[in-house]
Automatic annotation (TrEMBL):
This is DUF3048 domain-containing protein. It comes from Candidatus Woesebacteria bacterium RBG_13_36_22. The keyword Transmembrane applies. The chain crosses the membrane at residues 12-34. Coiled coil: none annotated. Keywords: Membrane, Transmembrane, Transmembrane helix.
Length: 406
């Protein structure tokens, strides 16, 4: 047993496992063996190191991502990093998720079959604590498009993605049409120079693993399905990004936010008599587990989230998720575009939007000129709309869907 323990912990063995993991994915084989090496009893307790900064310090520093105010020590931390953009699943069996309450911005859209998925942006909200983020899931091209709006090469965390790799097919690729070219996330990431051994795309299936990305089938106490078990730890993700040359500046000394322009922000200004206190919509019909509603709470000037008719909470805090801004954008939906049921959503150009804030609703236009451009919102006169400082959710629903509010 002692010799076995020594072997498993040796550098040579870990190098072998790393190469084995890459081979298995390249051949289309499940990476189960690769990620099974470390199980939940070896996951680092993320509570270690919390409360590093006095929470009573003056909040004088504006977060560039969502405008929320923080202390100077918190700003000093985030100015050593670049944003994490993590793909988090929302399958009903994967709830409640971990870490969503610490995200600065969250995008929600259908992955396949009416099941939604999140792109969660972590930057200022994870300055103080090492946050458990889960369950991480596979990439989609439209999620990559939104991530690209967060400066030069944000940290993109995922586990696999729509791709044409196939271990049992001639030539190692799937038949033509199995995965549409426009839905091939691996090809898309490679074309952007994000996907490589040491790239800014952190793929738990190929180029990142323990102790940064791990498996924990007991995150929800009862054993969950294998596909719902991938967990990331933000401090370790930031550290690995630094090791790869993706901290606040890259290896050439260029800051991640050189060409990034923040949204415009303002302080709370709630209506004395709210006009929009209940918001509800569906992504797909007959998929009630993924229907969303938001309830306005005047006391906190915020919207509380419900998913599938239930309070949507963060597993780590057991507190209900909320947003200062709920932005509904209407996007063109096409698909399924291939035999695997992948969807395609238009993320560049412009379209209609509804912005809920301060108990009010604003008719708006969303606009994203290029892939690298940040998604922005304008009124009927072309003036950019100011968002309330704080947590912001972007709900991308198909054009033609109805949003009820009163």
């Amino acid at each position: 047993m002692k010799n076995l323990t020594s072997l498993l912990g040796s550098k040579k063995f870990m190098v072998f496992v790393s190469y084995l993991g890459v081979y298995l994915l390249a051949s289309g084989t499940s990476w189960a063996l690769f990620s099974y090496i470390k199980e939940p009893n070896e996951i680092v307790d993320v509570s270690e190191g919390r409360n590093r900064i006095d929470p009573n310090l003056p909040k004088t520093e504006e977060c560039p991502i969502n405008g929320k105010m923080y202390s100077k020590p918190e700003r000093e931390i985030w100015e050593t990093r670049r944003p994490i953009t993590a793909v988090i699943e929302n399958h009903a069996d994967s709830r409640p998720q971990s870490g969503l309450s610490n995200a600065d911005v969250i995008y929600e859209v259908v992955a396949e079959g009416g099941i939604t998925r999140f792109l969660s942006v972590f930057y200022c909200g994870v300055s103080v604590d090492d946050i458990k983020v889960a369950p991480i899931r596979s990439a989609r091209v439209y999620l990559v498009d939104w991530a690209a709006g967060y400066g030069k090469k944000p940290i993109f965390v995922h586990i696999g993605g729509a791709n044409n790799i196939c271990g049992n097919c001639p030539g190692g690729v799937k038949p033509v049409g199995q995965v549409a070219r426009e839905a091939d996330a691996f090809r898309f990431l490679e074309s952007m120079s994000w996907r490589s051994a040491k790239g800014n795309a952190f793929d738990g299936g190929t180029n990142i693993g323990y102790p940064i990305i791990v498996r924990d089938q007991y995150r929800l106490d009862e054993k969950s399905a294998w596909e719902h078990s991938v967990v990331g730890l933000t401090d370790k993700i930031f550290k690995e990004a630094e090791n790869r040359g993706f901290s606040y500046e890259d290896v050439k000394g260029e800051a991640w936010n050189k060409n990034f322009t923040s949204w415009k922000f303002n302080d709370d200004s709630p209506l004395s008599t709210p006009k929009a206190t209940q918001i509800s919509f569906e992504f797909w019909s007959n998929k009630s587990d993924y229907d969303v509603s938001w309830k306005y709470e005047k006391e906190g000037n915020r919207y509380l989230r419900f998913n599938g008719g239930k309070e949507h909470v963060d597993h780590e805090t057991n507190l209900q998720l909320f947003a200062k801004n709920v932005v509904v954008i209407f996007v063109k939906e096409r698909g399924p575009v291939d035999k695997e049921g992948h969807m395609f959503y238009t993320t560049t150009g412009e379209g209609e939007a509804l912005i809920f804030q301060n108990g009010d609703v604003v008719q708006a236009v969303w606009r994203k000129r290029t892939q690298d451009d940040q998604l922005r919102f304008f009124d009927s006169k072309g003036v950019e709309i100011t968002l309330v400082r704080g947590e912001t959710w972007i709900e991308a629903i198909p054009v033609g869907n109805k949003v009820d509010y009163n």
